[in-house]
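Why do we care about 3D structure at all? Because function follows from shape, and shape follows, mostly, from sequence. That is the central idea of this module. The next example makes it concrete: a single protein chain, its amino acid sequence, and then its structure expressed as tokens.
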Amino acid sequence: MKILNNRVELEQFVSEAKKQNKSIGFAPTMGALHDGHISLYKEARKENNLVISSIFVNPTQFNNPEDLEKYPRTVEKDIEKLDDSGLVDAVYVPSVEDIYPDNLESKHYDFNDLENEMEGAARPGHFDGVGTVIERLFEQVQPDNAYFGEKDFQQLRIIEALVDNLKLSVKIHGVKIHRQDDGLAMSSRNMRLSEEERNASTIIYQTLKKVNDWFRVITIPEIKNRVEEIVENQKGMELEYFLIADEETLKETDFFYKDKNYRAFMVVNVGKVRLIDNMHLD
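And the structure:
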């Protein structure tokens, strides 16, 4: 596996691949890698001649400077994990200057109003930061296919809108949430949980499974009441929001329509750690 330490090295690698008409699969990360990330490369490996990863903690998508400072940076371990997987041909580890050569600012995008729902409402400007870094990485890596996890489902929809609106020649693939044996969605944030908090966090997945059972059986307001009650009864846990939304528009709904697909979204603060999860409703 090649380590590409700057934009020049990446451009040389990509240029050689294009000369040989090799297809490129790409999954960008902010590091602190876990098996959920590796599941992206398993999918990429099936469909591409070359697979590229990137590790870059993007400063423009953090609303809180303290969150940026605390974000785990484990580049050496991440590179080792990618290498051990045997799935990745090259990893791009750019500097801030490689991605933002002029100034450290986000572009402003129209994501078809997707950016104003859920995470966008809580974190203004966040998705402009995501869009900016993804557009620049796509320009540099020139992938044929790109892979993103459904755990960040709103981000996946945002990136699909970015590609569609800018008419970029890359196909976006959503990859199912990779969970630990007890159902907890794999996340870089999980390493910040105490053992007690880690065990308690399984209630998130258990609750989403109950929501799927209740779906179309009881009303959405009643489902919300039950979810709030479950989380309120857990020591050290606070429900930031729970909602059921149309999978295409991400608009919250209070009523089910037969021709729509729905997904439940849940954000829970466990101690000082903010955990997000979601589930497609059958």
